[in-house]
Backbone:
């Protein structure tokens, strides 16, 4: 039975008023038939969101307090309140900026989500960390004060019964200080715990608000994140020291020793920077001796080409056949996906959302794998896609070569839209060779780094040439053969020197820093995980080696 004919109720399209509705535009809150969907989407000035009618999300519009029979589907920016269409046309809101309530809802929802993300991933973990440190200090408190008691006992035994009273007095002093110390830490713990409870409640309320899609609640939400960025005061208590003195019966009390005062200092809590103002990562020095911490056998029989990190312990790989494999550090196959065309993939990259992108030079496509479903994002004409990487902005950078093999370039895509093409320097000369080996990576400073057969070519975000690196300056006898390339949190550039079985580490300005050898065999693809562990795909062994070098 047609779900739209139950109980003799026929739901019609809001545009044509004649055909049965099939879809719903959540952005415009109207129902559409199949024919009118195309007409509705033709208005490109609005970002429509058309879904099947049965999957639509219902919005909880608030009722206008002045016009009870109308819903507030607009928003007055000056008054900062939802308003109905009658209110908009009234003199009360004359000259005010009026926006669509759905636009306001989307903006507010994004703001709520950002607050939620910051609370869950940055602020609350810091409170947990502080609470853990206080618990650790409390655990150490017994040992520290126990040592003081032992010192006092040892000194008392040396003086025998003549100083028993003094020993007992000192023990009493120690116990009193201990109680004050513990009381101070307990008070600090209670304060932190109270704040954590407030944060949990706020996060719970935000989750409920996000799920409810309630316009009234969402529009009146006021963020308290700035309040909690200022962490509770830090309490620093200095454990007293015991200073033993030589025994002098005439001055036992004075010479027995004294305890330093219990020092309790309360420091103002740190104010965390917002998510948008997080500082540069801490400096991590290079290890003198990099070490291999894991080896993954990928199972490709005739060669491994590329590796891309999904997480610290899971990597995507591609090799000599049409199958791309997701493996863990124990070489266990977690997922395998075959290319849409049945061709061997040219290169792979993991997006910021954790999806997989691969190039197929044989059918000139760039493809996205999401939930194991393959979607062709881009089909090229006159050019073959070679290698791909994902940028900090979730754009795609793709190296490609012309059909006649004479030209090459780097192209930036946002989704399937071309945003930038990098091919020539300021004098109109080609930036890249016409060879088809061109792994690439985006550095932390947004430089674009390409391993171009015999040189690393680095341009800035605008495509202006910064430098070319052709190998260590002192090495004039061996040819430089860069293949895979990646960058890390320190803006180091790492490139695989294929013929000489090593990795070159450069700084962001192209200065050579160090080699990584690590018993590598024909290193090809490279990637770095979020903790700056290097993964190296070896062509000959078809193994991936995880290397700690920082």
Residues:
């Amino acid at each position: 039975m047609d779900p739209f004919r139950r109980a003799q109720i026929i739901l019609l399209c809001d545009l044509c008023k004649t055909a049965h509705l099939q879809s719903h535009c959540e952005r415009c809150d109207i129902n559409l038939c199949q024919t009118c969907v195309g007409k509705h989407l033709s208005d490109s000035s609005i970002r429509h969101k058309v879904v099947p009618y049965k999957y639509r999300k219902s919005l909880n519009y608030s009722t206008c307090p002045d016009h009870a029979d109308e819903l507030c589907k607009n928003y007055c920016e000056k008054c900062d309140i939802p308003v109905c269409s009658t209110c908009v046309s009234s003199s009360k809101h004359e000259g005010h900026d009026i926006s669509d309530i759905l636009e306001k809802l989307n903006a507010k929802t994004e703001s709520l989500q950002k607050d939620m993300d910051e609370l869950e991933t940055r602020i609350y973990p810091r409170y947990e960390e502080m609470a853990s440190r206080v618990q650790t200090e409390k655990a150490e408190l017994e040992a520290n004060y126990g040592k003081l008691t032992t010192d006092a006992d040892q000194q008392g035994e040396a003086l025998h019964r003549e100083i028993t009273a003094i020993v007992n007095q000192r023990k009493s002093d120690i116990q009193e200080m201990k109680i004050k110390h513990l009381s101070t830490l307990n008070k600090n713990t209670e304060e932190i715990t109270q704040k954590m409870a407030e944060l949990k409640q706020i996060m719970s309320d935000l989750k409920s608000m996000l799920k409810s899609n309630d316009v009234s609640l969402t529009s009146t939400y006021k963020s308290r994140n700035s309040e909690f960025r200022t962490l509770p005061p830090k309490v620093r208590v200095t454990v007293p020291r015991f200073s033993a003195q030589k025994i002098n019966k005439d001055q036992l009390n004075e010479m027995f020793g004294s305890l330093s005062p219990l020092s309790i200092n309360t420091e103002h809590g740190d104010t965390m920077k917002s998510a948008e103002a997080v500082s540069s990562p801490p400096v991590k020095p290079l290890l003198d001796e990099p070490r291999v911490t894991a080896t993954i056998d990928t199972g490709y029989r005739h060669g491994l080409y590329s590796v891309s990190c999904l997480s610290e312990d899971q990597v995507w790989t591609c090799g000599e056949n049409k199958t791309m494999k997701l493996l863990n550090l124990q070489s266990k196959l977690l997922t395998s996906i075959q290319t849409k065309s049945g061709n061997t993939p040219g290169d792979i990259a993991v997006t910021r959302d954790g999806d997989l992108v691969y190039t197929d030079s044989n059918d000139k496509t760039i493809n996205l794998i999401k939930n194991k479903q393959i979607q062709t994002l881009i089909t090229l004409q006159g050019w073959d896609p070679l290698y791909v990487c994902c940028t900090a902005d979730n754009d795609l950078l793709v190296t490609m070569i012309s059909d006649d093999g004479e030209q090459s370039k780097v192209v930036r895509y946002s989704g399937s839209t071309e945003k930038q093409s990098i091919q020539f320097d300021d004098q109109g000369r080609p930036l890249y060779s016409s060879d088809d080996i061109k792994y690439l990576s985006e550095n932390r400073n947004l430089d674009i780094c390409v391993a171009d057969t015999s040189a690393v070519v680095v341009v800035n975000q605008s495509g202006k040439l910064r430098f070319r690196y052709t190998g260590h300056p002192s090495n004039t006898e061996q040819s430089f053969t860069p293949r895979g390339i990646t960058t890390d949190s320190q803006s180091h550039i790492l490139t695989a020197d294929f013929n000489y079985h090593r990795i070159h580490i450069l700084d962001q300005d192209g200065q050579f820093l160090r080699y990584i050898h690590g018993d590598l065999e024909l290193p090809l693809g490279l990637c770095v995980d979020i903790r700056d562990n290097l993964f190296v795909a070896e062509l000959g062994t078809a193994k991936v080696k995880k290397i700690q070098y920082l």
